[in-house]
Description:
alpha+beta, Aminopeptidase, 2 helices, 25% helix, plasmid
Amino acid sequence: VQEQYLPSVLAQESVTPYIAMLNGEPIGYAQSYVALGSGDGRWEEETDPGVRGIDQLLANASQLGKGLGTKLVRALVELLFNDPEVTKIQTDPSPSN
């Protein structure tokens, strides 16, 4: 996985990657980025440079329905708001999720 995805993640200067861990084991991935100018048709109306977008996923279907995604998002939001420059955090979850 690292060989396939790590170079493309690290090539994106505006994206900060995170590995979600539980009991010393990796269980998911999350990333944050400056929403302003992020492209891909996302957040095009955003004018505040303090806004961060986030994306997250759990690595194994057996982890679904256990509240781990909620815990991952809460931990990431708490981490990001430790930065005084961050004013808002937004994401675009799937309605079925």
